[in-house]
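Entry type: protein chain
Record version: 2
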Amino acid sequence: MRTSPGDDVAATAASPGRRSTELLRGVRAGGLLTAVTAGAWAWWQTAQYHGAFRLSENVRNSALGGGLLLVAAACCVWLLIASAMSQIQRRHALIRALVPAVLFAAASLLFGWMWWRESQEIQMSYPVLAQLAVATGGLAVAADSDLQLRRTGPHTTKAPTRAEQRPRTTTIATGASAGPLAVAVIALTIPSMMYTPTSVQVAATEPAPIPETLTDEVRWQRVIEHGRDDDIEGVIAGAAGPIVITKHGAMGLDPNTGETTWSYTRPADLDSIGGDCHTRMEANCKAILTPDRTRLVMGYGYNPLETEFVVVNTFTGEVTFEHAYKDRSELEENRGRPWVYRYPSVQATDHVLVVEQEVLSLTDGSVLSTLPDERAPRPSLGNRSECPRDDSPRCGGYLPPSRAGHSTLILGITCWSPDNDPENYVDYPWCEMEVAPDSDPSAVSTVSGIVPPTHRRWENDSVVVDGWTVHYADPDAAYEELSRHNLMEEATSLSFPLEAVSLDALAGVDDAEPVALGSLNRPERYEGAHTLAVLGAAGPDAPATVQAWFDPATRQVFTRDDVGTRPSGPGYLDSLHPTGSRTDDGIDLLRPDDTVAMHVDYPDQREILDYKSEYTPYLVQAPGTVAIVDHCSIWRTDTNDPAPTGYETVIYGVG
């Protein structure tokens, strides 16, 4: 039966409308599927990042609340007007349809902006806000498509037939539904590709020995210009030469030329994972070396969410493994526990890396064991009822140092004052250390009589150099002597027979004998040293000075007289302290008696420029070279500009 020409024209006119309807239905289905998938992913990811929405109390908290309110408002508006859309006049339909769409779009943009701000700081695997932005965008697309369908659909009260009610999937609808999904995948993929690490590796070579003397003149110098917000954190000694720690990674230097050999960087900021922090050695806060210096541990992240640990071979720059540590303080079973420190406690031996309670193999990053809760690192700087002895009214528990023994872990340090003075809240010259082999952390040994680097209880813990620390040679006699003095006034004026002890020997890993140091007071803390420097006794108003240096590599002790008469060896080099020259044209290396051992000039000096050290220069003893490191700011002398014109880190090869 033939149809009339009018029927053909109507069918032809209806075809574009049907295609438009199928397209909108597909886009609506794709938007809803995108929203559900991204929302479920964000919900799951939030469970992985404990406290994911515990952001800092600033504008982003308000922005997050505002975004949630916008989503809620959009949903309410949509539900209120959707059922009435088919009854309203067409000239008002577009305006009313745009209201929830604009709200959804605004919420999506707000979430996206928040995620971008967070990713600029975090720059690692923190996708929760990105997924929420995509989920909100999917809802916006679905809402707009649904309202367009209601606005352009047939306005009739005739009930649809059974055939019209049956769901049908067309090619147009399927293709349209794939569009929002493809956009969502791209939106979640591209940003993650922007934060990939960059690594340059070299072949391993046999390291040169550490020089024992200074050269007559500067062998080489390396000038690194940088901005105030893109600092060089410092220089440390690796297993094959100096290593520069930057804000975003590390790079190895050739000990003969100062040129870069290997490097590792990623567009993220290093966390302060190290417990050994000092203004002149900020690098020890940002990176940790194993005791044998063959591996470098760096941590990227955004506390309190996650820290991404990267372990790098210091010979080649090759990444050994990466490990993501997620904060546990927001877990329900950890509520009320004393998580008073900001960054995870990290400790390294030659074989394992301990992050909080996780013991990782430095070979491949596998989890070897988990420390029990009673061994979890917990500082306690106030009173403790669990003091090891009942003759002290108070004591303090301290986090272990970031570098322990070659094969020994430090699981706890407790210090107190033996004078039993209830008024002594300050001076704690006695420490007890819990150690265990890194192959069996459950085999804990307790060692009394560890000498802390300072008697101030807020800073007490221990000094460990190359797996050795300082111990009272006769602990019982020393404890008795300490108990007879007013340590608030006399702690620094006392001297005792001290000895250097190997942590591996204390844990029963080896049988290294203690080495006598002489009658001295306490060790000096300096994270970049190659020797244990020990201070002598001093009067109440007199500064203490180093009287002995112990070299763990040779197990020799250098006295103050030795470094004055024999200008060589690690003890002599550690006794030198760089400072700004008296002529303001460079740096002087001073001996313990304040005579100049060596002078180096500032590079590229110009009359209109003035160089000022940001903090005291320091010496780095590395295989193949001895280097002076100076972080300085540059000022113009021909203007009244109060701000420096630039910043430089200058490394001088002087050994």
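Comment: Residues 70 and 107 are 6 Å apart (CA to CA).
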